[in-house]
Amino acid sequence: MIEIKGLTKVFGKTPVVDDVTVTIYPGTITSFIGPNGAGKSTLLSMVSRLIEADSGEVLLDRNNIKKWKSSEFAKRVSILKQSNHINVRLTVRELVSFGRYPYSKGRLTPEDERFVDQAIDYMNLRDMQDKYLDQLSGGQKQRAFIAMVIAQDTDYILLDEPLNNLDMKHSVQIMKILRKLVDEMNKTVVVVLHDINFASVYSDRIVALKNGKLVKDGPTQEIIQTDSLREIYDMEIPVQVQDGCRICVYFNSHI
């Protein structure tokens, strides 16, 4: 379990994350949603120790994440940021192998190779594992980065807008794979999403932020309601149920 308690981050004089308290429950997909500038990515970065909070704390298994050794923390929590710029020319397999660094320190054992193979197969990358990243489409490249995170074999996987710049087909593929990671491999996934329909269809829980503050936190079906969405987005968003999924019809809503 990850417990976020009173987390605050101020840039200049503006609180980007303002006294947020929320719990990430094991074995779930939790989606962070909200308007641009709500603080979603900053909150995720603090949970993953990429940036330090100004106040508050994050507990992993009831221990403050500041007290974890980096090597041990990297075996429990992995993060994939929005922009992944790598200056070296790498093949897909070389990139995925980086996920084993907390264990191998760069010297891959047969067990490390097994995790790399498993992640490559999980993301359907076997036929392109020897291709260079600059030879791949955006969707293929994103799958390779997610395979790297899977190879890291952490309990918690944090993903910052993994659907950015992906078409519908690849977005659905990625979300289905995240769902499988939770359902089949008992992972816990936290994902920042802009498309509330992907959050609605694939998440167990939703955390909604607005202007740095937590405005909603609960099971998906409780948050994907017109009243709740109005509070989050300042829009009238009708919700329709289709094949058991709650779909937000925001394309032609009254603002």
Describe it for me?
The protein is of the alpha/beta class. Helix content is 34%, strand content 27%. The protein contains 10 helices and 12 strands. It has helices at 40-47, 70-73, 92-98, 101-104, 110-122, 138-151, 168-185, 196-202, 220-223, 226-233, and strands at 2-11, 14-24, 29-33, 55-60, 63-64, 77-80, 156-160, 188-192, 205-210, 213-219, 239-242, 245-248. It has a 6-stranded mixed beta sheet, with helices on both faces. The protein has a 4-stranded antiparallel beta sheet with strand order 2-1-4-5. Strands 11-12 form a two-stranded antiparallel sheet. α3 (92-98) packs parallel to α6 (138-151). The longest helix has 18 residues, at 168-185.
The strand order across the widest sheet is 6-7-8-3-9-10
**DSSP summary, beta strand count:** 12
Largest sheet: 6 strands, mixed
Low-confidence stretches: none
Determine the number of helices (DSSP H or I, runs of at least 4 residues): 10
Tell me the strand percentage band.
25-35%
- Helix % is 25-40%
Rounded Rg: 18 Å
Whole-number mean pLDDT: 92
Protein structure class: alpha/beta
Secondary-structure element pattern, one letter each: EEEHEEHEHHHHEHEHEEHHEE
- What best-fitting shape do the alpha-carbon axes yield? globular
Distance between the termini: 38 Å
List keywords for this structure.
255 residues; alpha/beta; 4-stranded antiparallel beta sheet; 27% strand
